Amino acid sequence: MAWYFTLLLILGPLFALMAVGLPVAFAFFAVNLVGAFILMGGTAGIEQLVLNTVDSISSFTLIPIALFMIMGEAMFRSGIAVDLMDTLDKWFGKLPGRLALMAVGGGVLFSTLTGNSMGSIALLGSSLTPEMEKRGYKKQMSLGPILGSSGLAIMIPPSSLAVVLGVIAEISIGQILVGIIVPGLLMALLYVFYIVGRCAVNPELAPAFEVKHVALSEKISATVINIVPLAFVVFSVVGVIFLGLATPSEAAATGAFATLILAALKRRLTAKVFGTTMLESANISVMVLLIVSGAVTFSQLLAFTGATFDMVDAVLSLDVSPSMIVFLMIMVVVLMGMFMGPLPIMLITLPIFVPVVLELGFDVIWFAAMFLVAIETGATSPPFGAALFVMKAVAPKGTTMGDIYRAAVPYIICDLAAILILFFFPVLVTGPVSWMFR
Predict the structure, then answer these.
(1) For the packed helices 427-436 and 401-424, what is the interaxial angle rounded to 10 degrees?
(2) What is the reported pTM?
(3) How far apart are CA 298 and CA 280, in angstroms?
(4) Which terminal residue of the chain has fewer beta carbons within 10 Å of its beta carbon, N or C?
């Protein structure tokens, strides 16, 4: 059977099951079960499927997912994230578009602490958007910065999606976590340039308002109390990897422990906060691990049929430059993001794309960084980007989906610009990785 018919027979039912509302994890398991029975020798294939599923979730490399979830939940449940925003507010003073810039700054800092983009939207959207509208900010300047900056949680460690990508693509998680730092900061910088430039050209988008004077001593005091301790948390995750003191899994453990210690020192680690943190992080982690286990066995099913290898040969025979093939794959991810969530996209495309990238001779970490930017772009892209609907849930009353769509467009353009910059300057990804892992 031709490889494209095999892919159609496997992917067709998968898309159909997800389209009728079956949860992603169960859709993968259903396809895997039927596929293993038909293509891998009946009950023997199902037995192999069970073994593959057990092996896929027994991997030590999956531990950071649960630990990063604990970090994020502890930050939000203990109110540490709110303290962070209050301190940023004291420093931004009378800058043009200060509240929009606060959203970007908050997005960057939350990304280094939680790795949870939807949580970032919920917090920033509920706390900053009403204040922006109260100060006369137009919707495109009150909603857009939050949509854009919240996605940085995908790009700046700790990033659970980066861990999932590493597991599915079977590449170094440590190298991915280091490789996405510069791209994440690049995206934040593009957002800042856009906000400052747009506010300079159209001041009415973010009217200036009187800001209460805050003494320098008060700013420094708030920074020492609310931000400096967070450096310890960041170091416990990223720093120990950079110094070679811990693997990504061990760094996730030190990060979760440091977050809980910080909450305890602030006297906010109550029994209720701790219990809610563990319960919510466990719920999310189980969901992610179920999906990952289904995806790993799905990729093994594709490999068993030979469809993956035949497709790679077909792609390599195309009369198109290798660079263009990679670029088109990234654009496919962006388009899929308009209709699907990040995890299903990763689980469907990575088993197909990564072998092509490797065969073409490109750096897979460079591709992974662009892939994650594309995932973030898709999550904020109309009509069905997941971040858009979270924003709608926390936006002020009267905000329409049209308002949110229009607000997202400039930041989608910034994300596409970031992809192009990374595409033409791979050293932004490969340089830090080579220096770190030389």
Answers:
(1) 60
(2) 0.73
(3) 27
(4) C
